[in-house]
Automatic annotation (TrEMBL):
Pfam families: Dimer_Tnp_hAT (PF05699), hAT-like_RNase-H (PF14372). This is Zinc finger BED domain-containing protein DAYSLEEPER. It comes from Rhynchospora pubera. Residues 316-398 form the HAT C-terminal dimerisation domain. It comes from the Eukaryota. The lineage of its organism: Eukaryota, Viridiplantae, Streptophyta, Embryophyta, Tracheophyta. Residues 176-276 form the hAT-like transposase RNase-H fold domain.
Length: 419
């Protein structure tokens, strides 16, 4: 796999332009990326490959959520079996709907059952089943074959878990789709997840406290890798800069430690800035102006030139960092802002070009919630691989066309922003 990736990178002359690779969080991918790093020239990688390996946000959230669902184990199975039982035949569906009307339930949601490898379907199944929990209780007296009636504790646990998983459901939808949002949107969402987990760990229910502790363990492993580059993306958002990091880190780390953690992000940002600045060069007219101004000085030319460049770079960084925050608005577009203001911050504009293009998720919306990967239906698992590929691509293109116009407009903005 590594050799094939290198072949493609070399064919397209991308080996010296690679900033990050976003992959699922599994040991096989870890080995692939490490092997790839050894084959690439480290001095051509961003911070010598420090951020080459990016973990997929959606995949990490799936692993975390799995622990959340495991906590209601047998109860979840009883609710699942109940949903399957009352949707198994038209007669049972009719009987269930009639009982719902007698119970004066106004919801029009249809009862559904889930696919175990897709946790969003489990979330939606529980969300609907909770509406009809009284109906399930009444129906146990109507049909003697109905043996898997959920207990009151099952419903209580299902309600609590579903409430807690709703934040993951919403954020996973953000992390995936045919039109991906820019990297600056992810940092606050990831911080919110951490704050929720911190709150859940203190839950008076020991079962849910244990659940949150397990989820936090997996979350921290991901956090240690991703929060740095996401923090950089936040600083590059002129509406937030360092202020949003201060806001969340004060809540996460407390007043005694948050400044130390914020400084780590700022140091990383400055390291990144210096590396990009060292790769840049002055145009001929600016170079001539600098040399003219140094002719009257007795100091070494190289020293003066280096000092002048360093001062110019620092001025750009300080001008941006210390400048006022841009007012937020519903239609604010961070790419458009950098296109308009890039002439004031040429080095930062180059960083924004690379950071905002980082894909934080590897999956599209239809597979973002799957813990088992993209699944081919039993009716299609005997098709020729070429035909399966054609179907997959065709499905992707058809779904994307509805967002095509907006996607094209954003691409145009991105291209012009960094020309």
């Amino acid at each position: 796999m590594v050799n094939k990736m290198m072949e493609v990178l070399l064919d397209w002359n991308l080996d010296s332009k690679l900033s990050t690779i976003t992959v699922d969080n599994c040991s096989v991918n870890d080995g692939v990326v490490q092997s790839l790093v050894r084959k690439l020239k480290s001095d051509e990688l961003l911070l010598r490959g420090e951020f080459l390996h990016m973990r997929c946000c959606a995949h990490i959230l799936n692993l975390i959520v799995k622990d959340g669902l495991d906590i209601i184990g047998d109860g979840l199975e009883r609710i699942r079996n109940s949903c399957v039982f009352w949707t198994s035949t038209p007669k049972k569906i009719e009987m269930f709907e009639a009982e719902a009307q007698l119970s004066h339930i106004n919801s029009t949601k249809k009862l559904c059952y889930d696919v175990k490898t897709r946790w969003n379907s489990t979330f939606l199944m529980l969300e609907t089943a909770l509406i009809y929990k009284g109906v399930f209780h009444r129906l146990q007296f109507r049909d003697p074959q109905y043996k898997t009636v959920p207990t009151d504790l099952d419903w209580e646990n299902a309600k609590l878990v579903n409430e807690k998983l709703k934040i993951f459901f919403t954020i996973t939808e953000l992390f995936s789709g045919t039109k991906y949002t820019t990297a600056n949107h992810y940092f606050p969402k990831i911080c919110e997840i951490r704050l929720y987990l911190m709150e859940w760990i203190l839950d008076s229910n020991p079962k849910f406290s244990e659940m949150a502790t397990k989820m936090m363990k997996k979350f921290k492993k991901y956090w240690s890798v991703i929060h740095g580059i996401m923090g950089v993306a936040t600083i590059l958002d002129p509406r937030c800069k360092k202020d949003l990091i201060d806001y969340y880190y004060l809540k996460i780390y407390g007043k005694d430690y948050f400044e130390e953690e914020v400084d780590k992000i700022v140091v990383l940002f400055r390291r990144l800035f210096r590396e990009y600045a060292s790769r840049g060069s002055n145009d001929h007219s600016e170079q001539s102006a600098i040399e003219d101004s140094m002719r009257k000085s007795d100091l070494p030319k190289d020293f003066l030139l280096s000092r002048r460049k360093k001062q110019k770079v620092e001025d750009e960084l300080n001008l941006y960092i210390n400048g006022d925050l841009v007012a937020d608005s519903e239609n604010f577009n961070v790419l458009s802002w950098w296109m308009t203001n890039g002439h004031k911050y040429p080095t930062l504009q180059k960083i924004a070009q690379d950071v905002f293009s980082i894909p934080v998720s590897t999956v599209a919306s239809e597979s973002a919630f799957s813990m088992g990967g993209r699944i081919i239906s039993p009716l299609r698992n005997r098709l020729h691989p070429k035909l399966v590929e054609a179907l997959a691509c065709g499905q992707n293109w058809l779904r994307a066309q509805y967002q095509g116009l907006n996607l094209i407009l954003n691409l145009v903005v991105l291209v012009f922003c960094f020309l």
